[in-house]
């Protein structure tokens, strides 16, 4: 079976922003807001053999979803944006690149300057 990395984000704008920075094919799944433990399990069932990365906003809703993921998938790796940026979609590209690079994602070189 092919081993894949999966990034879980809150919304489509987060996905688009991360796709610009990533220099590798990574499955990016959007929760589209509030989710239940059942919905998380259902959403991630096809990815049970993948390495999961959770990257949510640094706000109240992001922390609520993150808490659900910590309970449902304690093996998932949690990525954090700085509170000053609040949202993944407003985090500067170079900061996103640094966060992803720390977890050995391949990044487009122009975002590393």
Automatic annotation (TrEMBL):
Gene Ontology annotations of biological process type: rRNA processing
PROSITE patterns in UniProt: TOPRIM
Top-rank lineage group of the source organism: Bacteria
Domain (Toprim): residue spans on this chain: 4-92
GO molecular function terms attached to this record: ribonuclease M5 activity
Name this protein carries in UniProt: Toprim domain-containing protein
Taxonomic lineage: Bacteria, Bacillati, Bacillota, Bacilli, Bacillales
């Amino acid at each position: 079976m092919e081993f894949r990395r999966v990034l879980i984000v809150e919304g489509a704008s987060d996905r688009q922003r991360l796709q610009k920075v990533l220099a590798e094919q990574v499955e990016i799944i959007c929760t589209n807001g509030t989710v239940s433990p059942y919905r998380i399990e259902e959403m991630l069932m096809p990815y049970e053999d993948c390495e999961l990365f959770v990257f949510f906003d640094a706000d109240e809703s992001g922390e609520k979803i993150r808490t659900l993921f910590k309970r449902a998938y304690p093996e998932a790796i949690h990525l954090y944006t700085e509170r000053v940026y609040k949202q993944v979609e407003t985090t500067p590209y170079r900061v996103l690149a640094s966060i992803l690079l720390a977890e050995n994602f391949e990044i487009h070189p122009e975002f590393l300057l």
